[in-house]
User: What shape does this take?
Amino acid sequence: QAADFPMSLLQEVLDACAALTRRVEHLEHNKVAQALDITKLKRGVKKLERGNKVKVLKLRRLQKGRMIDDLDKNDAIDLMDDKREENKEEEVKDDQVKGRQAEIYHIDMDHASKGMLVGVIEEQGDAEEQVQDDVNDAAA
Assistant: This one.
């Protein structure tokens, strides 16, 4: 009976060891399966994020387009570029008109500006002479 006792104890230990070994194998198998599931889920998340990013960019572009359309529809708001283009067109037209007038009346545009400069300088000289005369009269 003493010999049977250690054999049954040994058998229980071996059965427990086999059960633990099977359990470890199942856990390892589950670990691999879960790792595959995790990688699939991560791939799906990345795909959804990319799709969401594209949708957000399209939505922003659409909103910008709507804002521009709203600005174009609103008559109270004039865009700066439109004003600049209109000013440039007006300047070109004015320059063309001045050029035609100069051709018709045989006017040298540079000569006219030079004449105006000489007149301004002469006026300044006359004013200085007047001040000089006033100072001399006051001193006397």
